[in-house]
Structures are given as C-alpha cells and as structure tokens.
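Blinded run. Sample ID left blank on purpose so nobody reads anything into the name before looking at the predicted structure. Input follows.
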Amino acid sequence: MYIGLLYSGDSYSLTKKGAEDTLLRYKFTGEQIRLLYPDLNTEINLTIKIDDQSYTISESGIGGFLPTVFFEKLDLEDKEHIVEVSGEKIYLDAIDIEKGAELLPYVEDGWKRYDDQNQNIQSDGLMRVTDTIYKFNNTATKSGPKNGFDKKIKFNFTGTKIRLIESFQAFYAINSTIKIDDQIYNFPQYDISDPKRYNPVFFEKLGLENKEHTVEITVSDRDDYFFVLDAIDIDADGELLPYNENVFSLIATPDDSEVVLTWDEIPDASFYVLRSTTPGGPYTTLTKGYSGTTFTDTGVEDGVTYYYVVNGSTYDSVNDEFEYYNSNEASVILEATPLE
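Blinded prediction complete.
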C-alpha cells in the first residue's frame, strides 16, 4: 500500500464492508514511528502490528482541531519493518518516522514490482506522468482525453501470476480489457460506495502456466481519463520483458542420458535449436531448418545444466517477407545414475 497521499494534507479513510476488517500495510526503516489521526472527534478501534508484535488501540473522542498522535513506538530495532493497521474503520492523517528513515511501498512475499515507466513496457497513445506524489516512484501511465482511437499497453513477462496496481484509488475503465496470451479479461467494476474501489490491485490473475506470456491492455477511447496504471507485480523470480507476440513455449525434459525438447506447433515454420551451458547464451546450434516440434539432444553429460532456446521462421510468399518466432529459454540438468 502506498502512503504518499498522507503527506499531502489529505486523509486516508477506509471502512469495513463484509466479514473481514480493512487492512493498511506498508514498510519503513528506522527505530521510531507515530501514527496521526485527523482533526475529528471520533472513536478508534484498531490493531497495529509491527513485524510480529501487535498493539490494540481503543480510544474515543481523541480528535481536535489539529492532527493527533494516537500511536507511538520509539524503541524499535534499527532495520526495515512491516506495519499492518487493521480495523472496521481506518482513518489516518499522517505517518511520522525519524529523520533519515524511509517509508517504503509494501510488496507481498512471492511478488516483484515493476514501475509503469519500465523500458520494457510499450505504451501507445497514453500519457506518462511524472512527479505525481501519490504513485509508486512518483509516476503513472494514464489515458487522456478522447481522440477517436483506443490506446494500448503491451509487454511480456515470465511466471505464473500478475497484478496491475493503481495506487490508492483505481478508476476502473468500463470498456477496457486485458489480453493475456489468447484470453481476454474485463476489469472488475465497483460501486462508488464500495471500499474495494480503493484497492490498489485492480486486476489479478493467478495460476498461469509457468512460461513467457504476452500482455496487451486495450484502453477504450470511451474510457477517457479513467484508466491509470501505476505498477505491475509478477512472480518474485519472474521477469518483465519487451513485447513480442511471436513467443512460443519450449519444454526441456531429462530422459536417461538425453534431453527431450518439445515446443508449440507453428504451421509451415522451420526451426533452429540452440543450446548453452550458461543462461542467456552464447548458444551453439544443434540443428537448423528443422520442421518438427520435438527434438532429442543426445550429446549431454550428467551433472551439467543445459539451457535451450528454439527460434522459428515462416515465409509469406504473397508479401515476400519472413516472420520470426522465439521460444522461452528452458533449462534442465541430468542427474547421475547411481551405481547398483
């Protein structure tokens, strides 16, 4: 959760809806922290968890004409801490930490965050905004006024899951879509009174095949000003890559003293099969002009990790041009067979 909004003179408010309490989560570095309530005479019933220690705050009528400190912890270990604030209603005005310390966005374990300005994200027709204090790395990508054309955001990534982040309040685009590989999804819609509209995760897809995926977000021209992308979360061991729609899946499987490669069929394509003993190459060509979708590499040794890629091409005789395709990099290690 991003906390930058709290430093701008505004307050943060979130009310419970349903069985679960609302939750505000962030990180900070240092030994000291204070939480300030806005100038309201109201009741506080919150649980504040710092790392593994929980504190219960129950106060009534603590407000006044100025923000009031309702929680303070001054003897923490000098390190990075995780803070969770939960309750039926969270109303927060500011967070104080010691000078020289740092307030950090919270990224859940198992995820990695990329800023919307990452060079591998292709943005066509949208506005890239900098120096906006409410956003991750102070940047955002936004749809602008109507111009008669849909806008596009494109990128590839490796992994099994993805989230799209829009800071504090997501303006959900009614007519816009996200396409992952060949599957198209609509963005969720929330009533203006639903606290979920403040959920920074405005799209999430889990359980994808662990491979390279293509992503294409189409921002409808009918959704002028209403689409905002702040960041992208993917697997912690995944990677954000430049957009390439001609990516196909390669699988490497050990089989006794050989490696069997299988990949997606591409009609009328011929392939190069490449191998390396280091990730990313350089690669040695095992075969070229290959027309199948299965290849067996017999020139391998036990205990060595091998990295494979397959490159394909097709020829368009009408337009007299080639189209090129690339697989993911697949790795495999042959375990030595124990002696009986």
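Unblinding after everyone has recorded impressions. Residues 1-13, 15-19 have pLDDT under 50 and may be disordered.
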